[in-house]
Amino acid sequence: MRQLVIDSASEACSVALLEGEAVVDHRHEILGRGHAERLVPLIAELADGGRADAILVGCGPGSFAGVRIGVAAGRGLALGWQVPVRGFSTLALVAATAAPDIATAGGALVVMEGGHGQWFVQPFGPDLVPAADLRSLVPADAVAAGEALVVGNRAEPFVALRGTGRALATLPDARFASRLPETALFNDPSPIYGRAPDAKPRAPK
């Protein structure tokens, strides 16, 4: 079965066509901004226009806009192609991307940019199963975590602030979604924001 994998929750815009563990085609661009304009063309550049029998989409946490764009694209294509769509945590894909190092280390802490001075942090075991819930923390609180290996786009500042450990700068890469354990996938994908939205309802007068 051919699967289209999408993740646009970080500065990476990453798509891949997978058949089992084999990568049929992929695109991976570091954009920072512009995911809304680039994601669908990236998918269209894939073999057969990205057409697949099923879709997997990263649901965040990460950039609010990037998360929404990726989930909307995945759900929209699934509806148009009449194929199933499932979601996964972007932090889980970061762990899957670094899976060999995590297995060797016996587990790792994934640390990703959370915005507004916070980091998203979540520990994963060597089997890529989360060892605790996702949290959004200010760096001073985040560095209380004790895992020796730290992976993600904030791994290097995390290790520098803590003063110990090994940092592996890692972005989510759709090519490695086949490493995700089955328990990491869920139906009815919707955004995982990881923290409260920036905009808050106006208090009633």
- Domain count: the total is 2
Structural class of the secondary elements?
alpha/beta
How many strand segments?
Answer: 11
Total number of helices: 6
Order of helices and strands: EEEHEHEHHEEEHEHEE
Quaternary structure type: single chain
Radius of gyration: 17 Å
Roughly how many Å apart are the termini? 56 Å
| CATH-defined superfamily of the largest domain | ATPase, nucleotide binding domain
Low-confidence stretches: none
Tell me the major beta sheet: 6 strands, mixed
Q: Helical proportion?
A: 25-40%
Q: Trace the largest sheet across and list its strands.
A: 3-2-1-4-5-11
What does this protein look like?
The chain has 6 helices and 11 strands. The protein has 205 residues and is α/β, with parallel strands linked by helices. The protein folds into 2 domains: 104 residues, Nucleotidyltransferase, domain 5; 79 residues, 2-Layer Sandwich (Nucleotidyltransferase, domain 5), CATH 3.30.420. A 6-stranded mixed β-sheet has the order 3-2-1-4-5-11. The protein starts with a strand and ends in an 18-residue tail after the last strand. The model has no long low-confidence stretch (mean pLDDT 94).
